[in-house]
């Protein structure tokens, strides 16, 4: 199973549509999409294909956090605007295998209490690079992930046909 993880597109629904079309075409029913907040979507339909949480800049009625299980791996996620201490408290309390968060616009990878913590950065407004970023998480016999960096303008122009 592959999971496309994005965060903080801040009002650019086209990039979400493109990612959905690319990865659902590649992996068919073997892919999920997670949005970690600050989509700033004004229409819930822009997020139809994503499991979402509410960011501090979102106005849509979305859950603050979510929990899913994929092939026996427990995944918890939130926007992360309450800080890393709150994330670690949630990990200590619920013992997920993977915790995902956004908010910082910075790619971050770490292990805490046997939990893999990932932040995909921002897909459109990165603070650590001029490239947007997202993560492809693969769960099968083991868990692997890849941070994908994109030039947002080039990406949008190249895949305009999916919008």
Low-pLDDT residue spans: none
**Structure class:** alpha/beta
Number of spatially distinct domains = 1
Q: Can you identify the CATH class?
A: Alpha Beta
Work out the helicity level: 10-25%
Give the full name of the CATH homologous superfamily.
Metallo-dependent phosphatases
Question: What gap, in angstroms, lies between the N and C termini?
Answer: 25 Å
- Beta fraction of the residues? 25-35%
CATH topology: Purple Acid Phosphatase, chain A, domain 2
Q: Biggest sheet: strands, sense, closure?
A: 5 strands, mixed
Give, in spatial order, the strands making up the sheet with the most strands.
Answer: 3-2-1-9-10
Provide the gyration radius in Å: 15 Å
Mean pLDDT: 95
Shape: globular
CATH architecture: 4-Layer Sandwich
Count of strand segments:
10
- SSE succession: EHEEEEHEEEEEH
Question: So how many helices?
Answer: 3
Detailed description of the structure:
The chain is an alpha/beta fold and about 160 residues long. It has one domain: Metallo-dependent phosphatases (Purple Acid Phosphatase, chain A, domain 2, 4-Layer Sandwich), CATH 3.60.21.10. The chain is built from three helices and ten strands, in the order E-H-E-E-E-E-H-E-E-E-E-E-H. The strands form two sheets. It has a five-stranded mixed sheet with strand order 3-2-1-9-10.
């Amino acid at each position: 199973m592959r999971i496309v993880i994005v965060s903080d597109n801040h009002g650019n629904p086209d990039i979400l549509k493109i990612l959905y079309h690319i990865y659902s075409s590649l992996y068919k029913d073997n892919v999920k999409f997670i949005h970690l907040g600050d989509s700033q979507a004004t229409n819930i339909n822009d997020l139809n294909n994503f499991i979402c949480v509410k960011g501090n800049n979102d106005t849509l009625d979305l859950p603050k956090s979510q929990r899913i299980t994929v092939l026996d791996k427990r995944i918890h996620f939130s926007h992360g605007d309450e800080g890393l201490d709150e994330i670690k408290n949630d990990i200590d309390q619920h013992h997920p295998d993977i915790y995902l968060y956004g908010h910082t616009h910075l790619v971050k990878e770490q292990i805490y209490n046997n939990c893999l913590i990932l932040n995909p950065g921002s897909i459109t407004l990165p603070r650590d690079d001029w490239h947007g970023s997202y993560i492809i998480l693969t769960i099968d016999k083991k868990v692997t992930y890849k941070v994908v960096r994109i030039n947002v303008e080039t990406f949008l122009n190249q895949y305009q046909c999916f919008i």
